[in-house]
Design goal:
Elements (H helix, E strand, L loop, with lengths): L1 E6 L2 E6 L4 E3 L18 E10 L25 H13 L4 E9 L6 H12 L3 E9 L6 H10 L2 E5 L4 H8 L3 H14 L5 E7 L1 H5 L4 H11 L3 E5 L16 H16 L9 H12 L15 E4 L5 E2 L13 H5 L5 H4 L11 H5 L17 H15 L3 H10 L8
Parallel strand pairs: 4-5, 4-10, 5-6, 6-7, 7-8, 8-9
Antiparallel strand pairs: 1-2, 2-3, 10-11
Helix pairs in contact: 1-2, 2-3, 8-13, 8-14
Length: 399
């Protein structure tokens, strides 16, 4: 599909299949995208090794970490069956092995076991996990030193708000974890912060949170809360279009300046991923495709996504993941760049589609067009454009 984009110095045409720009509407690019992986390569394997958590976060989408089921950790027999299933499929490489929970470090022995056993049969490019950073013992330290996994650490800001959301004393423990990582020059981590109305009630603005993590000198991202607890929902959570465009402008400059510890616009992120790496999103979430990702629950059963572990499973996943089932998405020019969390849709957190599968509204076409316009303007300065393209890889988020 060709999208006409007007600028102050001419009209351009964006091919939303090949993600290329041209001054001619007849331009066609037949180069291959990077969607198809070689046989024997899985993009991602996600394993729930701990259906238990040592915190009780007020906005947790996973019912305190157990996804509505009993608190337990995966046993070694289940792990062996999962390993055998992966190996029997002839998998030669896993690009991303994500060991998840609950709190995964509550089952640190199995964390190590999966890495060691799978590595005997196939190549693992990257090991990742999400942790609350409260478990730091000699076994965790040894694992970090030996395998150097990428960590996403949950920290919602200063103690007054973090402990209110996650439990008294949790901020001190998580900060201790982060300080330990910095003391050993461990830079393979980022902070994930959730912004809530509790922040607002305590007079902590988004800007203050950005400053807090900037001064901490860490990689971080800040996201607004999604929760059925209306007390936590941020007032005026959805930024105005002009504010979102300003955020895009700031984000472009941050990429050019290689300010890699800055959090950039998700809209710009999706556009750059598509344009630079020629990656098409055929569905709202391509991770749900079993040919890309395999996800195992704590009992060894396979699910389409970690958000559907335990009692959270839903029969609507595949229906809601199909862009063709929504008339406004079916013929949208930017559908190949569009990502929408299907779990958020089903749980009623999406601002685009509600839990009944009814389209609400979407500003992505306008915002993505704005991104491309700014890239066109930037193209007049080849040095700055080159920096945008070459520096972007430093901003790619994984966990």
């Amino acid at each position: 599909m060709i999208k006409k984009i007007d600028t102050d110095f001419g009209t351009y045409y964006f091919d939303s299949i090949s993600f290329t720009l041209s001054s001619s509407p007849e331009y066609k690019n037949t180069s291959n995208t990077l969607d198809n992986l070689d046989d024997g390569i899985l993009k991602k394997v996600v394993i729930n090794i701990s259906n238990s958590c040592n915190l009780s976060c007020s906005y947790c989408y996973a019912d305190g970490g157990n996804y509505g089921m009993d608190n337990r950790v995966m046993d070694f027999d289940t792990a062996d069956k999962i390993i055998q299933e992966i190996v029997s499929k002839g998998i030669k490489q896993i690009n991303r092995l994500i060991l998840f929970g609950g709190e995964p470090f509550l089952n640190i022995e199995l964390f190590v076991y999966f890495i060691e056993k799978l590595s005997k049969f196939l190549n693992i490019l990257k090991v990742e996990t999400v942790t609350n950073g409260t478990v730091l013992n000699h076994r965790v330290k040894h694992m970090l030193n030996k395998f150097h996994p990428f960590l996403t650490i949950s920290l919602d800001g200063p103690e007054v708000v973090h402990d209110r959301l996650r439990g008294k004393g949790s901020h001190r423990k998580t900060l201790r974890f982060i300080k330990y990582l910095k003391s050993i020059d461990y830079d393979n981590f980022e902070i994930a912060s959730t912004y809530t109305r509790i922040h607002q009630k305590n007079g902590i603005s988004r800007e203050a949170i950005f400053k807090y993590f900037t001064e901490m000198d860490v990689h971080f991202n800040v996201n607004d809360v999604f929760s059925k607890n209306k007390v936590l929902i941020v007032k005026e959570m959805e930024k105005s279009l002009s504010e979102r465009k300003t955020f895009i402008d700031t984000s472009i400059q941050n990429v050019i300046d290689c300010n890699e510890k800055a959090f950039i616009s998700p809209i710009l992120y999706d556009v750059l991923i598509s344009m630079i790496y020629k990656s098409t999103n055929h569905t709202f979430c391509d991770d749900i495709d079993p040919s890309n990702t395999i996800t195992f629950d704590v009992d060894g059963s396979k699910k389409l996504c970690f958000r559907f572990w335990g009692s959270h499973n839903s029969p609507n996943v595949e229906t809601f993941n199909n862009k063709d089932n929504f008339s406004k998405c079916k013929d949208c020019w930017c559908r190949g760049m569009c990502i929408e969390c299907v779990a958020n849709v089903i749980d009623g957190y999406s601002t685009v589609i509600n839990e009944n599968g009814e389209f609400i509204e979407c500003h992505k076409p306008e915002l993505m067009e704005y991104c491309i316009q700014q890239i066109i303007y930037l193209s007049r300065d080849k040095e700055r454009l080159s920096k945008l393209v070459n520096n972007f890889r430093r901003f790619i988020r994984y966990a």
